[in-house]
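Submission checklist for the structure archive. All mandatory fields must be present; incomplete records are returned to the submitter.

[x] Identifier: Multidrug efflux SMR transporter
[x] Organism: Microlunatus elymi
[x] Residue count: 104
[x] Sequence attached
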Amino acid sequence: MSWVVLIIAGMLEAVWATALSASQGFKRWRPAVIFVLGLAGSMAGLAYAMTSIPTGTAYAIWVGIGASLTVLWGVITGKERASVGRMLLLIMLVGCVVGLKVVS
């Protein structure tokens, strides 16, 4: 169950990071509210997962999921460029996250 919560928490990290950018420095209230809710859910999920998953592993997986999804969302929405090098690095990041789970 902790792994499922950790994955959801990582997804929420991407939500709050994207909402933070969309809030334009907290000038837009809807993305700001999504940011606060996403951040709270993400941190709560990470904290819960850390009760049974080693801290370093949980944190690395949480960050890896959040960073990967944030970049992918930027590429999908056209706000970031999808270069071959960038996509290869994302694949390596995901591979490292999966590797951490495998060896845990």
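[x] Structure attached
Curator remark: The chain has one domain: 2-103. Residues 2-103 form one domain.
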